[in-house]
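Why do we care about 3D structure at all? Because function follows from shape, and shape follows, mostly, from sequence. That is the central idea of this module. The next example makes it concrete: a single protein chain, its amino acid sequence, and then its structure expressed as tokens.
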Amino acid sequence: MFHDAPITYNGIANCVEYLELNATRFRTYSLPDMMFVIEIGDFPIHQSEAVVARLTNNHQSYLHSLQTNDYYRQFANKAPFRLYRRLIAGRDGSNRCA
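And the structure:
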């Protein structure tokens, strides 16, 4: 289980890719609010009554992760960071301000 999935998603993606490359049997799913689960082999956590209840309302984790990303997006779009990106884009000769 991974906590803070909206923040650690690249590491989680690496874990999933590793399991796929090694032909490991697994199931993945997210749980509200910030949990991501990888069940490896025959370890059916998702069949637990408490987890089933969370899975049927899985929209909560999806929406929470998007809302969490909004906070970081708003922070990164503050004036000093926008100026920095423009300076870098100008220095690199690109016409993009990421």
